[in-house]
Every structure is written in structure tokens, then in C-alpha cells.
Amino acid sequence: xxxxxxxxPIDVVRENLIRDLDASANSTELARRMADSLFAVDLxxxxxxxxxxxxxxxxxxxSHLDSSISLHPDQLDIVNTIKExxxxxxxxxxxxxxxxxxxxxxxxxxxxxxVLIVPTLALVDEYLKRIIKKYSDKFSEYxxxxxxxxxxxxxxxxxxIFILTHDKVVNERMYTKLEEIDFLVIDEVxxxxxxxxxxxxxxxxxxxxxxxxxxxxxxxxxxxxxxxEDIEKLEKSPVFIRSSFSPVVNDxxxxxxxxxxxxxxxxLRILREHCDCQKTLVYFPTVVSMSKFVNxxxxxxxDFEEISQSIMSFIKWVEDEIHPEWYVIKALRKGFxxxxxxxxxxxxxxxxxLFNNEDNYTNLLCTSTLLExxxxxxxxxxxxxxxxxxxxxxxxxxxxxxxxxxxRTGRLNKHYLxxxxxxxxxxxQDYIKSDASISIxxxxxxxxxxxxxxxxxxxxxxxxIDFINELGITYEEYVENIGGSPRFSTVKYVxxxxxxxxxxxxxxxxxLNENDTxxxxxxxxxxxxxxxxxxxxxxxxxxxxLINKQRLRIKGIIEAAIVNSRSYxxxxxxxxxxxxxxxxxEYGFYSKVQLIKFFLEKKNxxxxxxxxxxxxxxxxxEVIYFTNSKQKRMLLDLGIYDRDIQRIINVIGEDFDDAxxxxxxxxxxxxxxxxxxxxxxxxxxxxx
Length: 688
Fold this sequence. Notes:
7-stranded parallel sheet; alpha/beta; 15 strands
């Protein structure tokens, strides 16, 4: 058969039709003329009512969630499969509409108790705003929770939606609070693949293991998964569905550079020549490289002329509260937005809101946080360097990571064609789309000492038995007190460092008992060295100030550090303060200090000494992060600035336990909420 006579795969035909729509001066008129062809390759989102067959189909496939939308055929198949099967794994491109399909099922079938597990608070916020708030009439009968309160008795005879990050359900006390689960959804499930460098992978596997067993029905979502190994070993033997359907096309243009120093100038050139006035993500492998780009490349640009008075108020607040030299503010003054995992939640929300909904702001500087399911309206992405932040083993981007990022471009009814510009340096690799489809094996079915420990199969692991024997504890005590949130290797590492520093730690605890006026700096220094296995005077100093119960202003902490430290530049100091405050202290430092406290208890250290760690460190962190108040913690997780939370509680009280009730209280008392920061006021207005 000649080349012209060959039947093209449906994906190629679909892609060519989408390209034709993109190139057309009048895509509506072209869609009318091509309606039969569009319908034939399932592009019903474009064929609409322009042909008889399409009209009939779209009427039949009308969404119950949003009456202005009809499901495309693959979405309709997914909804029906979820209904028919007890367990489903869905792999589909970013633009497929996986989340919409899940909520479509919920609205159609109305399961009573729903648990949605997502990897980040940014996705919690996205679910709340993009679905729960937007379609509030469809979810009015549900109570919506974003935290689990160990003290609360939940009414599982009613209708509940729990939207939780996986760390919120990691211990046995939390699992047992979720007495009944009618429908479980775990997003970004490719993270279940074993990764010994990432404690969060273990946490997510354990969350799946515990929750899937008590769920009547569950769905796992991910992009680009070609196969799940040992799928028959998973709870309920889920059916695996893989779809290649996408209503948009993503192109990659590789731009070879001669020198790594050319990355930033080339980025600006691409923005000017190819992406002017188009929504564009600019990906950086680290926050450090992002801030360097802002300082090195944006400082000579003219200030952005279209900053509104409202955003100027935000800039003024950040300058007063954090610091005028913070790269986020420098970028905003030049018309560039910023998104990464170190930013306070409220500031992240504002940046995404401006990028998605304001025509003036077209450029968003981002890190790998955008890989974790956050949706944007981006037309383009510039990949400045193909490496991945936060990887201890230094792994570069895989094809999976690369095309996951590329898939963030293009948007249904906005951009038919998304474009990625890849700056390939002399030592950077090529990426092939066929390599992006990965085979994964969940850690719970892989060889894993951590899963074995959690399942009680620890006898085969001599290193674990030696550890609990040396500490003088039983297996049951290990599971109850340490659990599965840190990997065993992490526990062992901290314990080995603890043994080396044990005498110094005990001496300092005695010094604190003997001198009531002694500060806790030396205690934090020793704890830090046990946890990290190294010295760092700057971080110890900052941690000491950041856990002050008086909630010292960030700007004051930064300025004091600048005066007292000649070893670090101002950008490093500001970024370190933000990172410690918004992630490390709560998620890294606190949990490991609890480990150290447990070690001391097992060494039969007198309670009066251990109390110093409880009162001077652990309790201070609990106060700062509202650990013991689920109501305050809910406000913090929604993006309210921490220094405003007590003011809000003073007005609305603490008699609420779900997001819907909180919204009602904020609406009722909105006029009485005064003297709040810009960012808290922004978050509240978005909630209402």
C-alpha cells in the first residue's frame, strides 16, 4: 500500500485536526465544516452540535456536574467503569479531564463518604475552588473536611467529603477515624512507585494500603503509566485503563545552547520572540536558580506598568512582612509571577489566580511543584534546565517528568496547541515521548523493608530486629510510637547520630534544668546536628527564632540574620527563612525531634530532662503550626496568614469542623474581620 493509502492511527488524525483548528482564523467555522471528522475521532468537545450525530451524542453525554459541558467518549467510559468496578486505575494525559470525571461520578451516584487523597495542599485548594466551590449546589448536602480531628466523632450516616494530603492519614489513629469509605480517590498515583530517597512515597503507599482495604470502591489517577506490575496483588485487583485521548496538542522545540551560562539569556530571548503576550510557564530545577534568574536577568527590565492598586497593596504588605529584597516581589514588579513549594499557601494561590485569570500577567516562574497536578492556562513552557529539584541522588528529569511538564501547556477552549521550548545544554539528554509511558510497581508489592515492617513481616530483616533489641522495645512499640511516616533508614540514621551526641544532649538538658534563664539555642543546635548529621549555625539560629511563640515578624528575623551573618547573601537568607518556616520545621524537624524524645524515653532518661524538649521545642512548634487546634489548622491550610488566625478565631469562634461551616461563619462575620493582612483578606474573599 502506498504512503498516501495507509490508515493513520487515530491519535495522529486527531492531532492533525486539532492543529487545523489552531491554525484557523475562524475555528468555529472550521469546526462546523469538519464536524463529522471531529466526531469520528471522539473530539466531541469541538464537534458539539455542528452535525446530527454529534448533537445526539452531546445531548446524551451531558454532564450532571456542569450542564454546559458534555463528556467526551473516553470520559463517559471512565464514569461507567467506575460505576461497574470496585477498583480502577486510570492513566491519561493531563488535559484528559480525569478529576472532572471523578467528580462527575460523585454527582451522578452520590456516594455517602468520600475520601480524596492528594499529594499537596495546592491540590486540596484546587479541588475546593475548582470543583466544590464552583459547583456548590451539587455538593450542598456534603460536609467537607480538609483535616482529620482525632477527638471528633464523624457522622458516617450523613454525607462527607474528606480532601486530605497523604500525610494527614498516615498513622493508625487517623485510619481508624475514617470508619466507612464508600469512594476513595488517590491522585498522582505514580508516586506509589518505590523511591527510597522519598519518605512521602512510603506514606502514600501506606495510605493506599490502609484505606483501600476499607473502601467499597476506589480510583487511582495518574498520567503516562503504561503498565502497573503485580496489579493482581493490589486490593480488589483494580482494572487498569489507559487512554491517550487529549483535546489539545503539545509540541516540543529543542534549542541547543553552547554553554550553560546561556540558559538565562536564551530564556529571555524566547519570551520576547516566541511567547510575547502568551501565557508561559518558565521551569527552573531549583528555587535557587529561579531567584538567580530574577536577580541576574530581570533587574535591568523596565518595571511593569500595569500593576493594579490591589497588587501594589500586596507588594507593600510583603515588603513590610517579609522583605523588599525578596525575589518574589522583584519578579512581580517586572510582571513575572512565581510558584514553588516554599511559598506560603496564600501567596501561591494569588500567583496562580493572577496567571490563570488576569491577561496582564503572562509569565509564571515555577519549579516541579507544577508537576503535581496543578492546572494552569499556559500556552507555552520553557524548560530552562532538565534536572529535578530535591533529589538526593541527583537524578535528571526522566522522559516521564519531562512530558508531564510539557503536558501543562495547552488548554481546552483556550489553546488548541501547547508549545514547550527545551534548552538543551552540551550534557543534556534528548527526550522521546514514547519513553514517557512508564511501568510502575507500587512499593507495597515491591521488595521493601518499610512495607514489611508495617505488615508485620519484619523477621527477615536482621537490621530492624537488631535496632529494636538495642533500643529495648517490641515491634508493637515501634509501630505505635514511630509508625510509617519516616522510613526505617531515616529512623536508624537519626538514632546513630543520637548515640554520638547523646552525652552532649543530656548535658544541655541538665544545664537547662539548673538555669531557668538559659535559652534554648544550644538545645536546638544539638537536635539539629542529630537530625541532619552536620552543623549549620544559620539554620539553627533561624529555627530558634521561627518557633518563638510570639510569632516574630519574618522581616525582623531576616534583617537580624543579615546583620549577624557575613557568610551568606541576602537572597540565600530570605529563601532559607521561607523554606524553614513553610516546610522544614513542621514536616522535617518536628517529627525527628519526636523521634529523639522517644529515644530518650527508652533510655529511661528522667522526665524532668525530657520535659525541656517538650516545652522548649515541641510545644513551641505545636503552637506556631496550630497542631492542637484543628480549626486554626484548617485556616492555615486554606492559606490564611498565620499571624491573622487568632484575630479571625476571636471573631468567628472555634465552633466549626468542616469547610462548609467555616465558609458560612466567614460570610456572616466578614464585616467584623478587621486589620487582616492582604493575603488573608484575599484568601477569605476567594472562599466566599
